[in-house]
Design goal:
With 590 residues, this protein is of the alpha+beta class. The chain has nine helices and 25 strands.
């Protein structure tokens, strides 16, 4: 199918697998029905939560699924007998040409999820895979090894996404990604799921209450909660289809644990239990929740993430680090590298942007960190030592300096958000200096802020303006959210959102493109000569959200919005430019 016209019905039947997967689309569900949907999916077939692949290299790819045991066990229940699972990888979709196969066991200790790293594969090649257990066969997934052949330059095209809140709307953006046949992988930059419940803390359009509800119905805190929430998201047909079609490279941000997380706590976490509002388990009426010890909560969230996501086990590429190592690097031949960073586990607690009537000096305190120093050193070394044309950085929060719009109460030079790199300016400056010193062209790919951006990265941004002599040392592209509230939802009207984006660009002239209304995804395409990012928005009747809210429309479509690029050697954004065309080459087997 042409990449320029993604179009897949919400009720598309996924290729292969049990007959029960023909009815994936979710209707109007109240909390009890949403929970029942997860239970029914567990009982409807062995592989009711789909299949996925991830972390591809030249010769390896990870495969994932969840197996419902012989006595159906709800995800997170900690119940059910173990299962033997067989897996197969073939170079054709009919599995006449098997290239690898094997068996393994899973059980309740890992919530009956399955991961296997398949090696011995050929670079830049498409493969098909499936699982078998208890007499059933999974849906057939498609995956691909990396275009990583030294001395050869292949095409490289990735979708990148973030901020997919289930209660925020239908996952139309994932349907658009699933319809594309031109991607090497999908890069998810965090907030794959959200921790909130369905009561006072509900997040998303009010019209979807009773239609897109979270399970468990309250904020997730325990291991059982996080497992059940992951399972709910994996019942979504559009998300299943996107996993089925492409390998993913994923990293978490804060909402996979809880909002604005840092090393020892989070904005959305209360250490002190309140016995009058405690919550004891799934099925209890929604309400405020006793959240307990933060590190225990985070450990539960990380465990569920590793069980339910197609990500390799921590420390796959050993490097000095603190805590658990999730950061890692991918190579794409002589064209580019991709460094995926993790910026929540070890970050210092956020501080206010101002202190009295001045900018808070703690923002620039060199003892405060976003990634731990060892990870920052790994990243700067990778950029400075690279001799490839491009170095991509998969990053959670906005990296470019973003000054607040001047208004009453705003201090001169005040940054907009201290949860971004602006809140950790010593680390921000260290990375900018490494970009300036390296010969590679840095391209930061970012999520989190629920809007679309193309930014220059000046080495010394100044609140007074972007002076011509202050050259940019790299570029940043920021993808829109899949469903989470953007400028329009935060400010109330499209007119207010448009005014805010204009004001931000005036205050920060290195922002070359900013759009705060549309939701969707971005596609980055890399050639030796340039990097280009196309922005794709979901639409209802052609409206990207100016008058309607396409997130609430199960029949919404996706459409091209705008494209921006950076030419090799410029280290600046240029555009707008025309929409991407066909790839320069295609992987073997495509």
């Amino acid at each position: 199918m042409s990449s320029a016209t993604p179009s897949v019905s919400r009720r598309t039947v996924l290729q292969g697998g049990a007959a029960g997967l023909a009815a994936l689309a979710l209707g109007a569900l109240n909390p009890e029905q949403a929970r029942a949907t997860v239970e029914e999916r567990a009982r409807a077939g062995v592989f009711g939560f789909g299949v996925a692949s991830g972390d591809p290299t030249a010769t390896e790819v990870l495969l994932w699924t969840r197996v419902t045991p012989s006595r159906p066990a709800l995800p997170g229940s900690g119940r059910g007998p173990g299962s033997r699972v067989d897996w197969e990888v073939a170079s054709d979709s009919s599995f006449r040409q098997l290239v690898a196969r094997g068996s393994l066991r899973t059980d309740a200790a890992r919530d009956h999820t399955v991961k296997v790293v398949v090696g011995g594969l050929t670079p830049y090649t498409r493969y098909w895979y499936r699982f078998r257990s208890r007499g059933e066969t999974s849906p057939v997934g498609r995956t691909q090894t990396s275009p990583d052949e030294p001395g050869r330059t292949h095409a490289l095209r990735l979708a990148f996404v973030s901020c997919s809140n289930y209660t925020g709307g239908y996952f139309t953006a994932y349907r658009g990604i699933a319809a594309r046949d031109d991607l090497d992988a999908v890069l998810h930059l965090g907030d794959y799921l959200y921790e909130y419940g369905n009561a006072e803390d509900r997040y998303g359009p009010a019209s979807l209450a009773g239609t897109r509800d979270h399970q468990p119905p309250t904020e997730m805190v325990t291991l059982a909660d996080y497992r059940l929430r992951h399972a709910l998201y994996k019942t979504d047909p559009d998300l299943q289809a996107a996993h089925l079609q492409h390998p993913w490279i994923t990293i978490f941000d804060d909402h996979e644990v809880t909002n604005d997380a840092y090393a020892t706590g989070a904005e959305n976490h209360e250490q002190q239990d309140d016995p009058d509002t405690s919550y004891t388990g799934p099925g209890e009426a929604p309400g405020v929740r006793a959240e307990g010890d933060f590190l225990a909560r985070r450990a539960a969230a990380y465990q569920a993430y590793l069980e339910w996501m197609p990500i390799r086990e921590p420390g796959w590429q050993p490097a000095p680090h603190q805590g658990t190592q999730f950061f890692r690097r991918f190579s794409f031949g002589d064209l580019a590298d991709l460094s995926v960073v993790e910026t929540r586990q070890n970050r210092s607690q956020q501080v206010p942007t101002t202190a009295g009537a001045q900018v808070n000096p703690a923002l620039a305190d060199p003892s405060r960190h976003l990634p731990e120093p060892e990870q920052l050193q790994w990243l700067t070394d990778g950029i400075q030592r690279s001799r490839k044309p491009w170095h991509l950085v998969g990053n959670q929060t906005v990296f470019a300096r973003l000054f607040a719009v001047p208004r009453t109460g705003v201090v001169g030079g005040q940054v907009f958000n201290a949860d971004q790199w602006d809140g950790y300016q010593a680390d921000q400056t260290t990375l900018l200096q490494a970009m300036a010193a390296g010969s590679t062209h840095p391209v930061v790919l970012t999520g989190d802020i629920h809007s679309s951006w193309a930014n220059d990265l000046p080495l010394s941004p100044d609140a007074a303006g972007y002076l011509a002599r202050r050259s940019s040392v790299g570029v940043e592209f920021v993808c829109p959210s899949v469903t989470s509230d953007g400028f329009k939802e935060a400010l109330g009207t499209s007119a207010a959102a448009l005014a805010a984006t204009t004001a931000f660009q005036v205050a920060n002239p290195w922002i070359r493109y900013l759009e705060g209304i549309g939701h969707g995804f971005a596609v980055v395409d890399v050639t030796p000569e340039r990097v280009q990012t196309d922005f794709w928005f979901i639409r209802s009747g052609g409206d990207k959200g100016l008058a309607l809210d396409p997130r609430t429309d199960p029949a919404a479509t996706v459409g091209f919005e705008s494209a921006w690029q950076s030419v090799q050697g410029s280290r600046q954004v240029s555009g707008p430019v025309g929409q991407l065309g066909p790839r320069s080459d295609r992987p073997r087997g495509a």
